[in-house]
Amino acid sequence: MKYGFFDDLSREYVIQQPDTPLPWINYLGSDNFFSLISNTCGGYCFYKDAKLLRMTRYRYNNVPYDTNGHYFYIKDRDTIWNPGWQPSKTPLDSYECRHGMGYSIFKSSKNQITANLLTFVPLKDSCEIQKITLTNDSEKERNISLFSYAEWCLWNADDDSRNFQRNLSTGEVEVKDSVLYHKTEYRERRNHYAFYGVNAPVNHFETSRDAFLGVYGSAEKPTAIIDGKLTDSIASGWYPIASHQINLCLKPGESKTFVFVLGYAENPEEEKWEAENIINKKPAETILKKYSSEASVDQAFSALKDYWTDLLSRFQVTTENEKVNRMVHIWNQYQCMVTFNMSRSASYYESGIGRGMGFRDSCQDLLGFVHLIPERARTRIIDIASTQFADGSAYHQYQPLTKKGNSDIGSGFNDDPLWLIAAVSAYIRETGDTSILKEPVPFDNEEETAVPLMEHLKRSFDFIVSHKGPHGLPLIGRADWNDCLNLNCYSRHPGESFQTFGPSEGPVAESVFIAGMFVKYGREYADLCHLVGNPAESEHAHKEVAKVYDSILQHGWDGKWFLRAYDANGEKVGSADCQEGKIFIEPQGFLPLSGVGIKEGLAEQALKSTEEWLDTQYGITILQPPYTHYHLNLGEISSYPPGYKENAGIFCHNNPWVSISEAVLGHGNRAFDVYRKICPAFLEDISEIHRTEPYVYSQMIAGKDAPRFGEAKNSWLTGTAAWTFVNVSQYILGIQPTLEGLCIDPCVPEDFGDFTVTRMYRGVCYHISVRNPHHVQRGISTLLVDGVAVQGNIIPFDSGKTDVYVEAAMG
């Protein structure tokens, strides 16, 4: 069943009933300040870093679902209700939530009072704006009260959740007119605070949670709102909050609008604010004044919409399939931008406390957004590379605020170095900017160690060359892309007990998947070496790639599919010889797209085996058969119940690899079938089964061996977004950036029809029309560029043009 619909013209998903199967959320913010908001106004906000500068609290694993949030309460005599339905859950006469590009709109009514709430984060300012309009639709004068509510986090979200013996004595607030200031820990930091203000006089306020909710009360029925009057409390320790009360009288047909601003502020760098525990309110007052009128808010909202219009115009497609159009036009690119901002740090499944920015994650995410914001992609590459070690390995994660590696997670994931090559190669193919390769970049953020970025790529490449096992395949280290495949955790020799090894220690477990990566990104490294005039290194890289390629053919093929790995004892993983986990998706998907096994016919067979063994109606599972008991030699992968996560779940992230490989082999029907099965727009009609948002990709879907087959988890922050956009834009639609120019090489279903693409590439707008009169799946018969026939399918880049018109005929 559906819970809403796509409004493609407005670029919104419209939710028509609040009790969706799971909270369906949106992200607000595009620079430093971010908010997560659900369809019932749950969520939280932070500045730059969801762990270190968390502004408002959210409770994970909560009952009831999805608390806390940034709430408004409306008290109308004895009736208390919320524009977003939660947390009071009073039945509404009407409800609508519109999640758009960086904003959400809630429109609800109860007893002939309508509330219209717009919430967004403006460009360049560190605040969340909430514009709420109340309208009296009755024929009688109505006296009602409006209450805001937000619960402050004591900044460090990790410490806030556990260090109660200290934190419950630190809360401090300040009140000035209609602004409530959260200055907890200001004594020791003296440079930042939070504030929540409204552009109207308030009748009362509350800054103590106990006073607002009642000591044993709840957000569903706060004591102060039931009483109809806030108590003007000043929090001292315990749980500081911010709540305003505005009493208003509405005549028949009258509307009144209020602007609330929830923000973060810092003292200017040059200003020393030495007064004991008195905050410098000027930065906050500047923001509050800027957004004190409806007109200024409307102007900021219009600027936000223009920003997204411009951004999304850089890749637009028109096909005969509206679901493809809306995903490529809008939601897939929007999700790629969210993963750029968040990596895997903050969602409704990632608490924002543990992971920070992932090295591998952020490199892969870049593949999906580099065409949108190449200048920021360049900065992100430098940030990522700066966490690398001198030997080519890297911290697996780093904190976005400090840019320092996460020592809790550490290093030892041996695929990480190659993802840096992937990101830099994608950036240069998109932009042509080779100057980035000369950019000085430190190791482990120690500035005195800085070397050109090209040297970082060499260290990445050489790390794999120098870390191979007895079969000539790359050592897996702690894990490769699959963090749960821990083949070096335990090892034994005959007669010996199992031994535990550290993250990068241990014996000889090897990864066929990393071998495939090395073939693809080793060749791309060689291309970059050739591009910058280093033919000797390019030739060296090709020779090393050839060695690994031969090792794959000799030791990585199992007869009908590619092996997954060799464990620490040299035993095969992902082989027909195994009782469980006979075949894995990763090598079957990634090796053919890397060019492995195509001329030998192995890639074709591997993809047939993938379809036979792993395919389901909801997508391709990560392995089969599932593990039914724990395997010490495999680690965490076998700790999940069958059908979930890495143990035979449908891990959406690597489904695009299979689709790309099918496209590489010219199988347009199959490539699109794989794309369609996990695409959220195609799953909207089964939202009661799928459960997560029908407008963004999820990390995983429960596999056929799970009790809840088809149920998704971990939406939004997943590499699925970037890889799917690469798949649909570069391989199915076939518009590929190369070092020489755009390549036109679509691979589509026979009945896909003609299509057009508008794409910005290196500052030039390409207007591409693709006809398929003979209903073929792949192949370009003619290519006209500005009316002139071009040999082959690569359009040489011409910086002297502003617009290029391309006509391609398949055949």
From TrEMBL:
Domain Glycosyl hydrolase 94 supersandwich: 11-271
Signal peptide segment: none
InterPro entries reported for this sequence: 6-hairpin_glycosidase_sf, 6hp_glycosidase-like_sf, Gal_mutarotase_sf_dom, GH65_N, GH94_catalytic, GH94_Enzymes, GH94N_CBP, Glyco_hydrolase_94_b-supersand
One GO-annotated biological process of the protein: carbohydrate metabolic process
GO MF annotations, alphabetized: carbohydrate binding; glycosyltransferase activity
PANTHER family (alphabetical): CELLOBIONIC ACID PHOSPHORYLASE, CELLOBIONIC ACID PHOSPHORYLASE-RELATED
Record protein name field: Glycosyl transferase
